[in-house]
Amino acid sequence: MVEVFIEEATSKDIAKIRKHPGFSFDWEQELGHEVYKLYLKEDENEILGLLSLKDYPEELRVHINLIEITKTQVGKEKTLDNIAGCLIGFACASAFKRGYGGFVSLLPKTRLIHHYQDKYGFRQYGRLLAVEYESSKQLIDKYIGDE
Predict the structure, then answer these.
(1) 86 contacts 124 by C-beta, under 8 angstroms
(2) End-to-end CA separation in angstroms for the chain
(3) How many domains does the chain have?
(4) 3-state SS of the chain?
(5) In angstroms, rounded to a whole number, what is the distance separating the alpha carbons of residues 17 and 78?
(6) CA-CA 20 to 30 A from 85: which of 1, 5, 127, 135?
(7) pTM of the model
(8) What is the pLDDT along the chain (147 residues), one digit of tens a residue?
């Protein structure tokens, strides 16, 4: 088992990602939201994934605004599994901590809808996909355990 950490990304982290060939999105645009990084315990300088969360307290939900895994950890050549699952599980835990019953939503690219439904248990709510209570608990248990 590999030990990873998820913590809030700093502006220095985001500046480093901008120059990193493994990330495609402009994460500086996400700095108005909560941005978290996932990294290996033994190398905090190597960011493996990023997550941007937007809080909707009036709707009692946390929205995954953006999630990205470094290109070296996607596809058949990856050396680690479950980076996205850990980040999604973290979002679910965050939604429970805020008193939202684990309600987490996202607006996926069309080609990823079935992936989020099949692998993570998201259900369709109009244009959004979401998980809540029991599905969120299962994601937390599977991917992040007791943190």
Answers:
(1) no
(2) 14
(3) 1
(4) CCCEEEEECCHHHHHHHHCCCCCCCCHHHHCCCEEEEEEECCEEEEEEEEEEEEEEHHHCEEEEEEEEECHHHCCCCCCCCCHHHHHHHHHHHHHHHCCCCCCEEECCCHHHHHHHHHHHCCEEECCEEEECHHHHHHHHHHHCCCC
(5) 19
(6) 127
(7) 0.93
(8) 678 899 999 999 998 888 888 899 999 999 899 999 999 887 777 899 999 999 999 999 999 999 999 998 887 878 788 999 999 999 999 999 999 999 999 998 888 899 999 999 999 999 999 999 999 999 999 999 755
The two structure tokens encoding residue 92: 């679910």
Put residue 114 in one of left, alpha, beta given phi > 0 → left and psi -120 to 50 → alpha.
Answer: alpha
Find the CATH number of the domain harbouring 76.
3.40.630.30
Length of the chain, in residues: 147
The pair of three-digit structure tokens given for residue 34, joined into one six-digit string: 């909560």
